[in-house]
Amino acid sequence: MKPRHKKLAIAGGVLVTVGAITALVLNAFQSNLVFFYSPSQVAAKEAPTGRTFRIGGLVESGSVKRDGTQVSFVVTDSAKNIAVRFNGILPDLFKEGKGVVAQGQLKDGVFEAREVLAKHDENYMPPEAAEALAKAQKGDAKLGASVQGASK
Question: What distance in Å separates the CA atoms of residue 96 and residue 61, rounded to the nearest whole number?
Fold first, then answer.
């Protein structure tokens, strides 16, 4: 084999190896990627079915029901509500009327959570959840203004 052919074979081998490593890293990244959706987006069927995602908002007052370690509650963004089921121990800061982010999958219209995270103080809320709540409240305000304008 000529030196030129050896260099081409080595360059080709390096190129194939780098391509394989890149493909494996991108595949691992894609399978671990978890997106955030608001209850309004989930109700509008924008959330993926059969894939893990996060839902966030406020725990609706009076919606928490406990049966041993099985807990069901409703997450709202003040526009839409989504029922959530969780089997496990909830964080100490989990309370009605407070912010929550749950990770899991949507099954038969109910969000089956594998993990529930509560905000750590009154001032903190994940940016995605705060943005979703603000959008939903703006939508409610516009709807209220248009209803008032129509009734005059």
Answer: 5
